[in-house]
Amino acid sequence: MPIQTDSSPETGPDDERTLVGAAARGEVAAFEALYRRHAGRIHGVIVRLVGSHGSRAEDLTQDAFVRAWQALPAFRFESAFGTWLHRLAVNTALMDLRSRKSRPQDDGDEDAFEALGTPDSAGHGTALSMDLERAVASLPPRARAVLVLYDVEGWQHEEIATELGMAVGSSKAQLHRARHLLRERLEAHA
Length: 190
What we know:
It is a single chain. By secondary structure, the protein is mainly α. Helices cover 65% and strands 0% of the residues. Helix 2 (28-50) packs across helix 4 (81-102).
């Protein structure tokens, strides 16, 4: 099911606090309103972290919201709900990345970029308008995660190293690798 967001204008923090309180008491309609308000942003960060492999990002977005629903009664308003939810979503994506790293499998990430510009089944060339999101999605998983967490989410290398289970130096090396690959790919398809 595609991620849908609420198209209504933003409401204030008091309204959000009221919705969070109602959802924490088990009011499904309030949680649905929170979902509609935040689903787009949450889905976006998950796509940037795990890539856009089929329905994986949508599944992880749903997982993040299920976890939020379960943890909501313990939410204490020490940060904004959106901030708390965003961190929960990032952690959900990172847990998925860690679990996939421990399982032998081929994500196909290395080949994702190569498929751009190849003829489709009708014999027409796929559009070559290479954008940054596609280039980021084509990066190897760990390099992509470090790039997104550092350059997009504003995390420090120490935080990234802790969350991804790597040394700080490895985080820095992965960031360098990701930027280098990104630059190469964007230049090659400019």
